[in-house]
Amino acid sequence: MENFGNEDWISALPDELIHRILSFGVDLDGVVQTSVLSKRWVNLWSTFPYLNFKPLCSTLSDYKYRKFITKFLTNRNQQSDTCSINISLSLAYQDEFVTTMMLYYAMCHGVQKFRITSANIKSKFNFPVLRNLSLHSCLVAFMDLSLPCLTTLHLANVLNPGDNLSFKEFRCLKNLTLEGNSVLYYTMEVFRIDSPSLQTLTFLQGEYYMYPALCKFVVSAPRLEYFKYFGCYVPVFSAEGGFPCLEEAVFYINVDEYVCNWDDGNQVSETIQKLMALLRVFCQTNRLTLFLETIQVLSKVLDFSKYRPSPFVNLWWLNLVEYMPPLLGFENPIIPVNHVINYLISNSPGARVSTKLLPMSVADDDDT
């Protein structure tokens, strides 16, 4: 075997590869600290394109946090590319100066991916090349943001004071995720999503106390290929023009006892009616994925004759998914599902049925 001695092979790698290695799990504090390793690393941090700022914590004062960000951005190589920015403030520390500085820096340096948590975005900004935007626990007026190239948008507990967001202004939008966003539509009767280029739509809803009981979701997305809904209640959806390109629809609906009292026949009947109406909206899908909790709701229907024929005429696959028991010896309740399966695939002669077990860790990672 050839003896390579004590040669530093990592330092011999090109800057781009070292940057990529450091981008996995290393925040900017750690990246800056690499400057003491050797002369090769002294200025390497200044061209690092993945700006992942450490979240503000109780052990770091507001002043020191602002000072570090300001110093880092000022001394960074202004000619180098900036691929992404990720900054997380705290709910108690929504520093408008830091927020504005980060947005301005992203705008001037052609950032393509930007994620910010707990921010109050007041100023107007034009992001000509931004493609991926994630806003978490933010107050933002979307009418003040120009995002002509945006393709991916993730909104988590975002408040839009304008109350006129329809996504129509994002002409290139292909991927939309709405997570726990009842604050967007809690008081609205109709929440519209108009997006002619949209291909994937994901709803990750909150707990029962944020249940938007009066809100109806109207979706116009003729190119939609993938839909996912995770929540504790059955939403009311309608599709303008249908979803002729839909390839897969995924439903995890674990109806909360605060939403439906399973001992109340009227509430159970209403919940079932809503679920059947929801499935009909996505009847053009090729693959239907239902989690056990959703099947449990459907199993309350003992006779599907009044719902026949099945709305699914294009099904290739019916996927039944169950989370693995988290504790040894724990078993999920056995529920009758054959009559549910037979009904769902009855109008799709070539449909196949598959079952899958997911560990709880996979569920937490939102990987279905």
TrEMBL record:
Domain F-box: 10-49
Classification via InterPro entries: F-box-like_dom_sf, F-box_AtFBL13-like, F-box_dom, F-box_SCFL_complex_component
Domain of life: Eukaryota
Pfam family, one: F-box
Coiled-coil intervals: none
Protein name (record): F-box domain-containing protein
Source organism of the structure: Heracleum sosnowskyi
